[in-house]
Amino acid sequence: MTRAPITDDCGVAQALNVVGEWRTFLIVRNLFNGMRTFDALQSHLGISTSVLSARLKTLTEAGVIEKRPDPQDGRSHEYRLTERGLDLYPILIALLQWGEKWTPNGKGPRLQLVDRETGQPIRALAVTAQDGRTLGPRDVTPILGPGGNDHMRALIARRNTRKAKT
Fold first, then answer.
1. Which residues does the UniProt record annotate as the domain HTH hxlR-type (predicted)?
2. What is the tens place of the pLDDT at every residue in 66-87?
3. Which of 25, 99, 120, 133 has the highest count of CB atoms within 10 angstroms of its CB?
């Protein structure tokens, strides 16, 4: 079943039109980890070929991945992340870190990321100010940008009204 695209003119909503289906980030995760072929992705993820085809088509049309002829077998194809796809890396890592923190399996981390150069674990991702301070949701104020619309203006006004009451 295909869902209708989100029409809200918001960066979050529009990103979800591309990567919001839950299997999509599993595909992206596997591409970051070196899987390139349809068969490898399908076998590892255990999803139907029609669902995988649909997700790969969406990602290709959105410019997140590109489909190339397989250099070893000209009859097959491989999938590669584009620059747009590579920009999903921090989101993938944030999801991984959130999942390890809030849905542990009781045996310890399922996956740890270390700096290839130093062998040290990477830091948890955080929103930071220009000077490096870590910022939480209460430390940031959204303002309407030049591409903003009345819908976003109302969202910001609602937040600012609620904040003024607290």
1. 10-107
2. 999 988 887 889 999 999 999 9
3. 25
